[in-house]
Write a structure and sequence with these properties.
This protein has about 325 residues and is α/β, with parallel strands linked by helices. The strands form two sheets. An eight-stranded mixed sheet has the order 6-7-8-3-9-10-12-11, sandwiched between helices. Strands 2-1-4-5 form a four-stranded antiparallel sheet.
Amino acid sequence: MITPIVEVKGLKMYFPVGRTITGKPRRLLKAVDDVSFTIDKGQTFGLVGESGCGKTTIGRCLVRLYQPTDGQILFDGQDIARLSEKELAPYRRRMQMIFQDPYASLNPRMTVASIIAEPLLHTDMSRADRDARVRELVDLVGLKPDHMQRYPHEFSGGQRQRVGIARALASSPEFIVCDEPISALDVSIQAQVINTLEELQERFGLSYLFVSHDLSMVRHISHEVGVMYLGCMVERAPVQELYAHMLHPYTKALMSAVPIPDPDLAAASERIHLTGDVPTPIDPPSGCRFRARCPYATERCAVERPELREVSPGHFVACHLHE
């Protein structure tokens, strides 16, 4: 039986916008608003949606780079959402993050060896053991031994991202948040990085939260997919089920924008064009947050927020059309 390594329950992350004379926030930006999902051990959960929908914020909350406003984050059964930094220390080694920008996430003043070894400085490993571990990780991600004494500016984007992957693996984590790890890379390099992540997952039984705009890549690497819109999860299902039977109007519009390499199929497919702009998370619409852009919106959508309901085994959708 597959057991979950991460369970997210009612996660909320609000950011204050502006402050009064007394120091109280004038308004709240609701980046993540009541999101729940589960990531099983050895599995990949893909998170998709437009820019600003809260995907990266969720990932940063899971590894506790952000202190959540509310909700639970159960890591291997332990709620880490409210733990102090001292209490979090044992969990820091078990969860890591691969950042989106391989150019900005590496210290330009440190060599590759120093960057990869940095997470190991807080362990009781000897210098010789650390050096051996760094050499092992360099080889594991497809870099060469002579790369160890080079600096980040001497590498291509794909090589820099491999350094970031090696750094994330240094502490032998069980769970890794991959925050759009291929979006800043050339198409020819993206497949190499994805293949590396898949090989590492199979070898070490890693669990991933894979955040991406690339819906075709999410389909390739994920076991389950969640679709985000304006801080809320509107649909969640196993990957094959979601791509075969999309239910939420936003999911259908999102998937219709994926380029099709076959010209004949592309000409026959229908692109769904959404009207209007994405509302601000500072002042989101009442009821369903997608209603202002939804062609099927009714009066009920304006007053009642749809709950994420299971409409078929493992397939959840937040839409009044499917109740």
